[in-house]
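Problem 12. The chain below contains 380 residues. Write out its predicted structure in token notation.
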Amino acid sequence: MKIKPWLVIIGLATALASCSKPQGEAPKTQGDEAAPVTVIPVESFPLDRSISIIGTLFAKDEATVGAQVEGQVEKTRVDFGDRVTTDQEIALIDTTAYEAQARQSAANVAKVKASALNAAQNLKRVQDLQRDKISSASDLDKAVADSEQARAEVNAAEAADAIAQLNLERSHVRAPFNAAVAERIASAGDYLKIGAPLFRIVNDSVLKFIFQVPERSASFVTKKLPVQFNVDNYPGETFTGSVYLISPSVSTASRAFGVGALVTNTDFRLKANTFARGSLTLERAVPTPMIPLEAVVSFAGVTKVFVVEGATAHTRAVKVGRIQNGRQEILEGLKSGEQVVVSGQSRLSDGQKVTIQSPPPVGGVEKSAITNAANAAAHE
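Solution.
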């Protein structure tokens, strides 16, 4: 069979083309290219270590003032919202009747004292007659008994008079401490039994901020630790206090324990039973790893950063905390000195090669520029 010349030419061209292509060479992909990034080392800054707290402001002292005597309320001298001082008279309960009882008991004391004096004088006379052998022994015994009975009656009358005077004093109801009246319960004309409530008063010059602390922080909580908090009725304003009460036990339900902080209520601006939220400072100036905000990547509930090791970028899950001056606090996942990517993350994947460029400015100005400006200002 005769082979056509043009078929030979095509076969030779195909063979030459296959020989010219290198064997085993894979096509280049975009993922093999080193991505340009800028990095910055993780630095430690002195930050106060604190925890968030939520609680309620309670009055330091609170009491329900009740009737200590039985009778009809004659008058109430204060109402809710009024401020009272220690021993200030705030109500009267049947004072006329108790004044009459006090006068009666005083008169009875005077009567029995007169009888006792007469019995004492009679005893002296009998004793004198006994020495002269004029009176009998039975007369002396009777005089002694009468004198002792009279003295006992004096003691009983004086005790009854003390009770009458005490009831008279208690009919004038007084405030037990400096406070504000939170509620007036009884009114003039009400008949009260002993113990019936009259007023509810609160000492709001000093408040107790009661809140819960997780048990994992128990070893750090001590007295006099500073507390900062905010309330809704003074937005943007911060109030302070210091720890003075620490519960000795942890709740098995919440795994937390109660802590109380004393708060001076200047000008009585804060109200008792107000909801408050804030922070408890556990330690001062603790070295804390921080990175620029732009280094943190959050997606689908996962917070991570890219850490450069050698010339390769790796993803690292981190736990973040507070934000201060454009920097993010790192609670877990990084340590000081590690290099994190601050720009170019959008083109990165885990394990990708990178090319490190110049470090970015801090706050729009390089660190060296900030230092030079500070030194120049110091020499002016």
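Discussion. The radius of gyration is 45 Å. Students who got a different answer should revisit the alignment rule from Section 12.3.
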